[in-house]
Write a structure and sequence with these properties.
heterodimer; A: 503 residues; Rossmann fold; GMP Synthetase, Chain A, domain 3; globular; B: 75 residues; mainly alpha; Non-ribosomal Peptide Synthetase Peptidyl Carrier Protein, Chain A
Chain lengths: 503, 75
């Protein structure tokens, strides 16, 4: 029995010490170099902050982040990835919830340190990854660890404007990585091309399936995703055979015609998740890369990454939805109606609840939000059993596959990112010159639409918001109006706004 | 050129498109911007930029973008 993800790292280190584990256009680490750097970082952290503490990794996305993540694990701590591009305002909100014990930074993020509102230990990656290792302390930390101890916290959008920190433990990631490797037959010949950021749950598959199967992972520079031909040339050059991207990234490649230009004989596994995969673009991919396995994966950060999946096994016309499929091994997917009763009939919509070891521990320092969605299984009143309410509405089709219908609340999926419209509204209302505001989502065009009152110019609005919110949360269409329509309860009349601005 | 600079400014008003020649190389434009620029060129000039032209060197400066547009208009 493995109780820590580090066992997998050490197994790969033992079997393939000199194989490249992770690489990008600047750095690369073999399994031995990776594990070694991680043990040095771990030794430093134990000495400096102790075990079971939050370690923020605030670095430009590259190979070295992985060593920092594993270093935190070696210390019995948990890592929290923050992106070098994240607006400082959001970082500070996260820090307030997190109260970290240490921040590992690099030369790219060094200049922002003074703006960070935390008094904790701050240390430069370059100063710790080669430090001598304290074998004894590493061993003690390891012995004290149990598999339900946290491995990482990922922050997702929250409706009150405060991002929620999802705590995921070693057990969930071990089981998840096992499932991925078994289901998609990954091994030391697997070469991943990573697209998703490390603060996003999809990257958990890339990172830990790589470590679990002794594979190699190339971090693809973000810029290449706007230059599809260059992107595909890189896949070819690096002999990448497995990708797990958001549908937006796959769609851009298909839409701009890049598949006509570059052939991809090596690419064998094409997985996607994070938002609905448009069938039209999937069909373009299938025509150009016919021999690959395609799979639609489905799940939120709160169940590690994925709970339900569908391996594309038949043809779909452009207007047919791709099912989200069946539960992963050792995952149970319950569909319940508004009264908490099981929905078994074909085509009847209910909320998707998930049961199993992929479930996160909850939200960090946020018992209220945790209680709302990590609840007692409504179908079991005999003993304590937690299920996670995904807030996703789904139904069973006649093939016994789940199909996604929509979000239960105002949370939306936009370009692969889960966004609470409330968080954007919150940031907007804080701006000078914005009196009232309301964000809507146009599902048809995948656009965030915002309507507001106040004297702030529309042009200025997105400029100011870019300082407060990640790029993917910036509204695509903004309307300034004289007054806001209100409903009977005095709340902003979202329905009226929707009919006025979204057709 | 002025029309193009105006267009580019509608995508990003905080960038000096008349001077900068490292829009991509220095990461000044991100992937959202590039896609937006491709879309506005499509709309305003009625040009579908083929995948093979969507490469960093064609987007590093307003001049490079204009050259590409003119080349594609001639074809």
């Amino acid at each position: 029995m493995e109780k820590s993800i580090l066992s997998y790292l050490e197994k790969s280190e033992h079997e393939f010490p000199d194989k490249i584990a992770f690489s990008d256009n600047k750095y690369e680490l073999t399994y031995h170099e990776l594990a070694n750097a991680a043990r040095s970082i771990g030794s430093f952290l134990i000495e400096k902050i102790g075990t079971r503490k939050a370690v923020v990794v605030y670095m430009e996305k590259n190979t070295r982040n992985i060593a920092a993540f594993m270093g935190a694990a070696y210390a019995g701590c948990f890592y929290v990835p923050l992106d070098a591009q994240m607006p400082m305002e959001r970082i500070n909100i996260i820090l307030k919830t997190l109260q970290p014990a240490a921040v590992i930074y690099d030369e790219k993020t060094e200049k922002f340190l003074s703006l960070m509102e935390t008094e904790c230990t701050k240390v430069l990656y370059d100063e710790i990854y080669m430090l001598p290792q304290d074998k004894e302390k590493l061993e003690i930390a390891r012995r004290q660890m149990i598999d339900t101890d946290p491995l990482y916290i990922l922050f997702t959008s929250g409706s009150t404007g405060i991002p929620k920190g999802v705590i995921v433990c070693h057990r969930s990631v071990i089981d998840y990585a096992d499932w991925v490797v078994k289901t998609f037959e990954l091994n030391e010949n697997t070469v991943f091309g990573n697209q998703t950021p490390f603060y996003f749950s999809m990257s958990v598959l890339d990172i830990f399936a790589t470590i679990r199967s002794s594979a190699t992972l190339h971090i693809i520079p973000k810029m290449l995703f706007s230059f599809p031909v260059k992107l595909l040339e890189l896949l070819k050059e690096k002999e990448i055979n497995t990708i797990y991207w958001v549908p937006s990234a796959l769609s851009i490649v298909a839409n701009l015609g890049a598949l006509d230009v570059v052939q991809l004989p090596n690419l064998k596994k094409i997985l996607f998740a994070g938002e609905t995969m448009p069938t039209k673009q999937l069909n373009i991919w299938r025509r150009h890369v016919p021999d690959a396995t395609y799979a639609n994966l489905f799940g939120p950060t709160e169940i590690t990454d994925i709970g339900v999946y569908y391996v594309v096994d038949r043809g779909f016309s452009d207007d047919e939805p791709i099912p989200i499929g069946v539960p992963c091994d050792n995952v149970d997917a319950l569909v319940v109606d508004e009264h908490g009763k099981s929905v078994k009939e074909c085509g009847k919509i209910g909320e998707l609840l998930i049961r199993g070891s992929f479930l996160a521990c909850g939200y960090y320092n946020n018992p209220e939000k945790t209680k709302e969605v990590f609840i007692q299984n409504p179908l079991n009143n005999s003993y304590p059993e937690t299920v996670y309410c995904t807030g996703d509405l789904v139904y069973w089709n006649e093939n016994g596959e789940l199909v996604y219908a929509s979000r239960k609340d105002f949370q939306i999926k936009h370009m692969g990112n889960r966004i609470e419209l409330g968080e954007i509204e919150n940031a907007m209302s804080a701006l000078d010159g914005v009196d009232m505001c309301c964000c809507l989502y146009n599902e048809e065009t995948d656009e965030i639409v915002t309507v507001y009152t106040g004297n702030l110019e529309v042009k200025k609005l997105s400029q100011l918001l870019k300082k407060k919110l990640p790029r993917y949360m910036i509204p695509n269409v903004c309307y300034n109006r004289k007054g806001m329509p209100l409903n009977m309860n005095g709340k902003i009349d979202r329905k009226k706004l929707k009919t006025d601005y979204i057709k | 050129m002025e029309k193009l600079i105006e267009l580019l400014k509608s995508v990003r008003d905080d960038v000096d498109f008349s001077k900068c020649t490292t829009l991509v190389d220095e990461g000044i434009l991100d992937s959202f911007d590039i896609i937006e620029i491709i879309n506005v060129i499509d709309e305003e000039y009625d040009i579908k930029i083929p995948a093979i032209e969507i490469v960093p060197k064609n987007f590093n400066s307003a001049e490079a973008i204009l050259n590409m547009i003119q080349r594609l208009q001639e074809e």
